[in-house]
Structures are given as structure tokens and as C-alpha cells.
Amino acid sequence: MTILTEACCTLDISGLEQERLVTMFKALGNPYRFEIMKYLVTHPACITGDIVQFLPLAQATVSQHLKVLREADWIVGTMEGPATSYCLNEDSVAWFGNKVGEIF
Predict the structure, then answer these.
(1) What DSSP element (H or E) covers 67?
(2) DSSP class of residue 79?
(3) Alpha-carbon distance 85 to 2, whole Å?
(4) In 3D, which of 41, 99, 98 has the Cα closest to residue 75?
(5) Contact present, 19 and 13 (Cβ < 8 Å)
(6) Opening angle at CA 75, ends 74 and 76, nearest 5
(7) Predicted local confidence at residue 9, as pLDDT
(8) What is the mean predicted confidence (pLDDT) over 81-101?
(9) pTM for the full model?
(10) Are 24 and 92 in contact (CB under 8 A)?
(11) Mind listing the pLDDT tens digit for each residue in 35-75?
């Protein structure tokens, strides 16, 4: 006998929204990128050098992780002279939270 239970969530997402959500999840899947995100919550508008001092990674590696987070729309960078200042993309963070809330 099969017992049907009510679905706990909906997976009503597709197309570009699904692609965006998957890209954002993938970007957070790396532990160092997750640490960068945590750092930016408490240190908005920091530069690459600040993050390099925080993590046990070379500057080139940190720059690559920042690139992935930018491409996933998690962060934005603003040129300040020779340096780039990074902060969370608040609109994308809110979109992600809302979309995950709708699905689960």
C-alpha cells in the first residue's frame, strides 16, 4: 500500500531563476568563499588585502575566489584608487533568501 504524503516544499523554479540560484549555491559551496562571505558581513567595504590577511591563501587565490563570488552576484566591487573595495550585494542576498524561502 502506498501512502501519499503532502509535499514539504515546492520546486517551482526554472529557467534563468534556477540557473541564478544554482550558480549562487555553487559559489557558496567552497569553504573559503563561504569564509569570505562571512568576513564581508562584519567587514563591509574591505579590500582584497584585508581578506588575504584573514585567510591562509595567496592573493591570487583570494582574487580568484572574489571573481567567482562577483560572477555569482554575491558581492560587488568598487574601485577606490588602485584597490577594489568589496561588499555584499544586498539585493542578491535578499533575492537568494526569498527564493530559498519560497522553495523550502
Answers:
(1) helix 59-71
(2) E
(3) 57
(4) 41
(5) no
(6) 140
(7) 62
(8) 94
(9) 0.86
(10) yes
(11) 999 999 999 899 999 999 999 999 999 999 999 999 999 99
Q: Within 13 Å and on the Cβ side, how many CA atoms surround 37?
A: 21
- The fold for domain 24-91 equals Arc Repressor Mutant, subunit A (1.10.10)
C-alpha cell at 40: 564581508
Distance in angstroms (rounded) separating the CA atoms of residues 52 and 22: 27
Cell numbers at 90, concatenated: 544586498
Q: Give the pLDDT band of residue 10 (cuts 50, 70, 90).
A: low
Query: Within 10 Å of residue 69's Cβ, how many Cβ atoms?
Result: 25
CA gap 43, 86 in Å, rounded? 9
Spans of all domains in the chain: 24-91
Q: Note whether 86 and 39 are within 8 A (CB).
A: no
Residue 4 pLDDT greater than 70, yes or no: no
